[in-house]
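User: Here's a chain of 344 residues. Predict its fold as tokens.
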Amino acid sequence: MARTPHHAAAGFSLLELIVASALLSIMALAVSTLSVSGAQGQEYAGRLNRVTELTQDVVDKMRLELVSSVRLFGNDAEGTGNLALLDLGGAPAPLSGSTLPTVSPAASIRTDTVSNRITGNSLFFTKLAWTDRFVCTSGRDYLVDVYRWVYYYLTPVDGGPTPTRAVGLDLARVLSEPLADASAIDRITDPDDLAEVLEHLHEATADADGVVHAACEVVWQRGGDPTAVGTFRQIEDTVFTLSDDPVDGRPDPWVIQRNDADSHGLLAYRHHSVATIYSQANYGVGRYGWVTTSGSGFPHGLEVQVVGPSSARQVLLHLVVASTSRRGRPAWSDLQVVVDGRDL
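Assistant: Prediction complete.
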């Protein structure tokens, strides 16, 4: 019978074991690296999807509100004057140097030059909140449009914009109290009917369709000079007439109150930020506005332009949002839309 040689039955040699161990280590390292890279890539893709969805959600909200706009405010006496009356006490503080866009009837959307700047980094407009229909005891039927002011602006968080970070800004939204259309109120010539309509608005009773809206104390002349007597009038709560001066404890001079429930930041609590001008170039910050680092910087990741005649205004919204997560590669989203806005 043939016998197996002694050296063939001895198993692997030391050299063979070393080579095999080295190969197994290399394979294990490769598999581990691929696993870690895959997990990191999946985590980054999730953050990228999140910031994209969030940016789209915020821009859609702004766009849908602009669709119901009836007055777009710019960086002029009317816009800044009305904005100065809006109560921001208790709301997020606006970034120093926040600027409304210059309404430009003859311009088109474009990049600013050093001598011709129309871009702002905030948005202030009036939207139609509801149309109130009320039937008086006399049987006469009255329609009154009721508006709200809407203000979107940048507010510093976590130290604000600094040259070392791409984040540090939240996007705040403030909604005003209801404002009744003065033109509709002034068309009511019967004093008894006028008193009934004013009482209905002030006391928030059901309208002709049974709908109860928020109480409305202020009557506003849309497009009026905010410093002129009669642009704002208040419904007195006992005799239900109109006063040119604030009454019933409202601050004098005029203050337009905000709706606390709808005045807050939109991004910081979701762990995201409006990108600052110190972001890397491919973020797309400062595509339209004239970029400056003086003061708190301008324009950062919110750019607004309002162009075209009053009958066909176009509003550019350009928003860049970045994740505040410090894990892995930074995730960001760059989105812009052009919205048709009414400016009556």
